[in-house]
Write a structure and sequence with these properties.
3 helices
């Protein structure tokens, strides 16, 4: 890996910075995509846990649908 970075740094002046900026942009995009997927997974797991909790409390299907509809109308359950 260090030989790859050294080869980029030994390019002519405008090209080494352009290459480094491209590499930094790629790394930033990759990290952003991974963090977004982790957040979506955590949101989904929380949603499933909430629904299981409602079932364990003994709520009927109609009551669970009413609770979820009320939560989505109030903005507590934003879906993106």
């Amino acid at each position: 890996m260090s030989t790859f970075l050294q080869s980029i740094l030994h390019l002519e002046t405008p090209f080494n910075w352009l290459s480094l900026m491209g590499l930094a942009g790629f790394a930033f995009g990759t990290v952003t995509a991974v963090v977004t997927q982790i957040r979506k997974f955590a949101d989904h797991a929380l949603d499933v846990r909430f629904k299981r909790d409602l079932v364990e409390r003994g709520l009927s299907v109609e009551e669970i649908e009413r609770v979820l509809a009320a939560a989505s109308r109030s903005g507590d359950c934003d879906k993106s």
